[in-house]
Design brief:
Blueprint: H1 3-25, E1 33-41, E2 46-50, E3 60-67, E4 79-81, E5 87-91, E6 99-108
Antiparallel strand pairs: 1-6, 2-5, 3-6, 4-5
Amino acid sequence: MNDSAELAKAAEKNKAAAIGKEKALTGVPSDQLEWHGGSVRKTVGSVRVNFPSPFKHIPIVILTSHWIGQGAGVGYVETLSDVSTAGFTLVSGNAADNYYVNWLAVANNT
């Protein structure tokens, strides 16, 4: 399988998982939510991010790209893979010394 097909397969798998998790957070009071966030420099195609402490439940993870000093858009969409209570893997063809991915993970803590 080529890289594009692998990325598409991972995106569909994570999209389905995210839809189920979205319903689980609807109407949850903010004092029952747990979150972690950060930024990781991405100089290779795949990067594993470990949360500072594990979640009780698998979180929803949101990604944004930050390409410092560039006046152009990124070439690929960042894709989540292997989301767990301990962390996640982000995958794409974007990589540079000045390329970062910001992330936010949120889960129900009850």
